[in-house]
Amino acid sequence: MDSAISTNIVKLKKEWDKFTFEPADSKAAKKAFDEWKPGEKQNIKEMKLDQYTNLLRKGDGYFTNWMERKTEACGKFRTSSYSYGIYRENKEEESYKSAEQRGKSKEDKPLDLDGAEKYFKEKVRPVVSDLAEFKDLPLGVTPLEINYARKIAYMYNPGMLLPIFKREVIEAIANFLGVDVDASNYKATKIILDELANKWGLEVPNFEITQKLGAFLWDMFGKSFDLQHKNIIFYGAPGTGKTYKIEGIKQRILIAGDDENEVLDFAQFHPSYSYEDFIEGFKPVKSENGGISLELKSGRFKQFCKKAMKNLREARERGGKLKSYYFVADEINRAELSRVLGEVLVCLEETKRIDFDEEGKPTGLYLKSQYGHLDTEEQAVLTINEEHYFGVPSNLYFVGTMNDIDRSIDSFDLALRRRFVWEKMVCDYGVIKEKLASIKDAESVEEYVKICEKLNELIAESWGLGQSYQIGHAYFCEVSKINTSALQSLFDQKIKPLLNEYLRAEYAPNEIEQKLQVAQDVFKLSAKQDAN
Description:
alpha/beta; Rossmann fold; 3 domains; two-stranded antiparallel ribbon; 13 strands
């Protein structure tokens, strides 16, 4: 086995050993599906079109609804109506289309009801039946969309596959593990499951194992967010997941098999952070005779750019591995950015990033920094004809985080704002439900989420502080039980101090106490749930 692949598996195992997961919701969904499951109570080979989809019926007791919505806890997939092989073209008319007709000329005659039933019987139902029986499909899974096909196979064979359906994620996992999979095959995740079961000593087939492993691998590979832009800032209230985004970067590095210490630099910005710290400046250095002299030193970002540039040039010239480098500026709004970035701000623009053409000549923008005329080749990011320049390489991502309570986006000058993509982070109540999935009482979790929503509505609307002051989901997830004592402890230790900070700049002390009491009254369980 390749040493890099072996190292990857060891890294992944360390993360797996720390991973905790309680598949309570998925167990309930599987039990309900098993009680309803076509093929046992009814013969799947004889399933009718109106049992398969809601084209002809009302209610939710039909096959495609169970696959897409009623068993989401066992694995989600994105779909469209054509994914199911047959769909209604016009809701008001008896007009249908097969998946094979999708995208064809509008003159292509749609199917009537008899045609739709015939197509379902001859083309769709046999594939559904084969998937349920885990048969090989040498001709693929047409006319069904692959993610949907995987979900069918998983629900009927939940110990044999992983509940991961997205092709890109399956391929990323396979590449990381060094296993050869054909992602167009609905059984692709079986190879990954068998590989890890063999390496880690997991007992399969087993539904609980596939649920936990699926959740783990999705967390590691599916949630590592896709950076569509080279310059991005995540902003929002405390606890809304800005730090989680940075963890996503670490996942990307892990997946790529790179050394985090080499390709990631994390800088904490603060009011005294300067151009000299970031790009370059003169720093005092002790001389041999014991005196102090000033010497030009490269700043943190400039050093990082030089490291990324070295990899970029080597990859372009020698065909080596091109790595992605990530510079993270935490609390970026706490520094005076126009002064920190200086004249190199323009180099951050994606269209001005440095790369190399087929002849090895640099493209993009490179310039002399403030003290660039004093640079040496060792200090410069780019050297051309013995002239030394600064520039930002195309393989570098600049990621910032900021709490917009401290400083609004509007306070940034336009030149700075337009060079970044700004992504607003808000309280995600779905995350609260996921984190509290181990609490068996679903009704109490639902009420707790509603309490959290009401508290945030109070802050944003009743108090008029706006969405930026709402409390993030990370705060609300800090409970292991849902009862009066747990909520009181969370409010006193975490939420009340935060609200007090929000309010003390706007209200007198006696008014603050009144408002905190109102918040405490909102953040309480109903008498019914309290009794439970």
